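In keeping with the milestone schedule agreed at the kick-off meeting, the structural modelling team has produced records for the first pair of proteins. Each record is given below as a sequence line and a structure-token line. The laboratory manager (R.T.) confirmed that both were archived under the project's standard naming scheme.
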Amino acid sequence: MIHRGLRMSTVVLHIVLIIGACIMALPFVWMVLSSLKDLSQVFVVPPKWIPDPFIWSNYKDSLTALPFGRAYFNSFYINMIVVLSQLVTCSMAAYAFAKITFPFREPLFILFLATMMVPGQVTIIPLYLIMKNIGWLDTHLAIIVPSALLNAFGVFLLRQFFRGIPKEMEEAAIVDGANRWTIYARIMLPLIKPALSALGIFTFLGMWNNFFNPLIFLSSTDKFTVPMMLNLYRGMYSTDWTLMMAGASIALIPVLIVYIIGQKYIIEGVTLSGIKG
């Protein structure tokens, strides 16, 4: 009887999750279907889900109407620099907070985490003034450098993994003559690969979809990222929704690829389970 009750609860749970997944997928399905419609069919009442006819040329037109090739290149190289930089800076800071004893370590870590509670909109004006004074406005450095140097969530995530590593491993390495840099690079980093992978994926997804910072700091079209380029389809008096939906569908492909490849690392990384014995 107990097993039957458990099976029923499992079935109900799966049904609820499937319904929730379908509801969450509806906007993406609508986006893809709208990208294949004529502009007159997008806001038809009642809504018409299936395009008639399918206009596949919307995808070609969305790529040729604006310099999307340059935008994709900008987004990719900015993402790669920020991801690699954050993996280095966050892992170094996390290792220090987890394994090195120094004065005021815990208060400093709490203060560092407190920055997560400050919305980016609050600090954007001081950051803008700083970028203006050093001459980085309308350059990718204004987007890359602040993101590469500070990620409190990344430090917290990696610190939890570092704390799960037995201190005996570090002590044994010190006895063998290893210094801090050797321990960090050759012993600690290989043990936290799941967390590094999860952080890299989170950073890539966040930077790829970042619209606010490029909107503030960039003004030249040749420096725009993909979200900024998509925004150009929105005119003052009209918006070409079909081309925008086509461009958004294409922009979604790298995100889906990264998530499909790295979903097991995301699940393993956010569990904060440390290493397994």
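The second protein of the pair:
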Amino acid sequence: MSASAPVSAPPPVPPATVTPRASSPLAGFFIDLGIAAVTLFGLSLVGGLIWGLYRGIVVGYASAKSGGGTPDPAAVTQQLGQPGALGQVLMALVATGGAALLVYFWRRPANAAERQRSRDALRRPSTWGWTLLVASAIVIGSNGIAFVAKQMGIEPVPTNLELMQNAVARFPLFLTLFAVVLAPAYEELLFRRVLFGRLWQAGRPWLGMILSSLAFALIHEIPGTSANGPAEIAQLWLVYGGMGAAFCWLYRRTGTLWAAIAAHALNNAVALAALVFFGAT
């Protein structure tokens, strides 16, 4: 008589001590990044469609009021034009801010213990000392990289420079609110709290720093969207990537995202002041 189990016997049940395998934090990182990218693109598309619909109504009403005949498609396209500085800034705010808030509340909302640790960190004087130090190092480092690159004949033009110049001339107060308050808050929420924070929590902070900083650099300078060549793009990526890494380090060092937001805001304030008073980038 055979001692083996019959063919129809069910498979053995795993021991009770075996726990289900946890999902990969790296996979979670790319899922978060993918959700944010799709949301950003979708909100940008919706914003463009709303603006196009508004302009279409305005142009159609003006044409009907003037008693014109069938409009020429080329003339209509020219009349529609492109969103102005205020429209582009608002669309960027809604798209990127919406993506950051969605991923944060859906994928990685803060719990009560994390909020308490952040509040405790805000009371420590060292938190603000590190914030000032990192913000100063970023300004000095960025200008140092730009100086060295200029000696090599590399002088990139940031993709958003023309937009910022137009917005400064026409909507200085709103641009200041956007660049110094709103943009640092939602960018830090997405790139540091959600993306970097996932891998930091999983015990892989250096990988999180590298990947989130690469994503931060890419979203600020997308190849093919400006006249910058490979060398110019590489310099901008080095600057933006270095900034992202510094903000990650500060967030981890102080234990509060508010430190990274404050350092980011200080950096943007210095850059905006340089643009207003010196026309520099």
